[in-house]
Amino acid sequence: MTNPSLFTMAPAMFFLFSATAAENTAVPSDTTVKTDELEVITVYAQRRAQDKTEVSVAVTSLDGDALAQRRIQSSTALSGLAPNLVASNVAGEGTTPSFNIRGVGMFDYNTSTVSPISIYSDDVVSGGANFLSSSLFDLQQVDVLRGPQGTLFGRNTTGGAILLMSRQPEAEFGGYVSVDVAEHDSRQLTAAVNAPLGEQTSARLAVNHQDYQYSMQNLFPLGQDGGMRHNNARLIIQSDFEHFSLNLKLHSENIQGAPKPIYSAGILKNDGSGSLCALADVGSRRCVDAFGYAVPSDDYWQTVADTFDKKHDTESYGASLKLTAELAPGYQLKSVTAHKNLQRFHSFDSDGPGNFIEGSFDSDNEFFSQELSLAVEGDGSFWTSGLFYLDESLIQNNDLDLFRDFRAIEALAGVPAQFFYHNKLDNSSWSAYSQWEQSLNNSFSVLLGGRYTREENQYQARSDLALVPVFIPAFWDLTGEVKDNEWSGKVALLQKLSDSHSLYYSLSRGFKAGGYNAGYATSAAQAADSAYAPERLNAWEIGGHWQSAQAGLSFDWAAFYYDYQDQQVFVNQTSGPAPYHVLKNAGDSQIYGLEAELNWRIDPAMQLELTLGHLPKAKLGKYQTEAVLVPENRLPFTSEWMASGQFSYDFSGMLHDLQFQLGFVYLSDFYFDQYENPYTQQQGYTLWHSRLSYQPMPELELSLFGKNLLNKEYTELRFDSIAALAAVTELRGEARQLGLGVTYQF
Q: How many CA atoms lie within 13 A of 578 on its CB side?
């Protein structure tokens, strides 16, 4: 446990460091400026372009070009690039992703889940879990906001928000084509073209194609190694007139393929004794599961999984229309209207070579949102107010097939069961928000924000049950409604120590409504117990932003304390052979931690970027009923330490137009569920990446790149299947990958 006195002293230490290092160099606040030593980053944390020193929020800004160079292809690959940000495909690519910021997140593969972290793509909120995963291509910038967001954004979130900003149309014709070829049969094509359509109108079309296999090799006869093919297209049309502008965005996505094969890691010794394996042996041929299965190889990226019939298919499209009008000098009205549709089918295998726990997710999602906001800028003040409406419907036709292999054994034929879930969920949310920023003098400004949210969740949950030889329709058929309304808000003080150095002090109240978790229940009682209540979060934070153009250095830090009430927690009940997964409200959880980011332009050729996140305490509040226990353990997916960094060197002075980058992402130990079972712990690991690029001419760039350079063995998921299979279900990370890239601009 970290000494609390050290945590208490840390803000003062940071304050003294920042104050003594402050420079008096003025930096323009309305644009991105590049000096000889340092690029000053403009952020959109408060829904408008601002210098980072002018915002009272912890925000990390990621450049779109830098993400493309890193081959960051999905929002779930942003993990570690901002302090205390963890993202993962918790049940495999194509299923519901998990985002965790400062220990606040949602580990739940159920498509009915609403995450406490929202993704905003060009001002449009993600909505439910199906819309959380986004392909990243042709982006201008990504901003990661940490802490409760709600007084300026459409959807209320307790954990934070990730803002994706696409490259917008420009008045001149141009574009680029980028092609990658890499190991694991990986191919990628990204292209964009910008075309003027008139004096006031321009268009930008961007497309992205990805085709790849996973590094896992499936040794099962007819088993698939798995892989995906993505096709994305985005068209943006921008029209600018004297007093208003229109922005129309159309986008589509198609994903097809087969899921990554899982690894069923038995925990029993392979000697017939029934004794438990040592932790170090789990995942080797020295261990078997309850049925005596062990993989025929100790190669980490080889498995045996019955996946010949498993597949994934996603079809998604959407449109948004943004209208911005200047009503009068200093008065701006904005309307954002959006519609999205998604259909997804994903089948999975959770047991390796057998047919004991298998199933599928089949979703049909419709989403509509409307946001109307008014911004008023005065002498030393900025006031924003808005109205937000969201309507989302989800139809699920999922299934869970348990112990199918027992159907052929007469003595065990009564054990197998297959559940067919037919659920319909409708979510409607209305809210009004307002935030006022007022300069008090040359040094201090105050921020006051408030929000009222009213949310209704209606659900119908029905399940059919297939036994041997009986089929039971409507084994349960439930309807219900969860209604919530709440006030939340923020108060903050921003202190400008100089034009390039600021401190902020804030208190935020976050709120997330309750709902119904339409997961894999196996009884009517479990299905009826799947409604959950709202959660609330009080967040105290102090932080600072400092930039020194003369020294080529910027430094950002934050210290925070979270007091959670009724935190919504996914529970994997592991006591019985049949899975029981439910979302419940824990007690009063507590989280506190520190964050720091450093960007140092050492000289014109060298640059160093570092981020650090520390969560000494991230404790769940206890919750217990007859069937469910949430112990006072550490929050899942929450490392105590995480860090990332990148070193860049430009060899242009010696070798013309040659550049080199080397970076890493580190996560310390964490657990995948709330029970802290040693068999489901992920040990700390570091992933290294690198890139070498050469431009023989200004329009052409050639590159070599590598991911997981040291071929580190790590897991994306460890799921407790011990009661059912005497095994841990693992999704293993990707092995080392080397590749070549070519980019041509015109």
A: 16
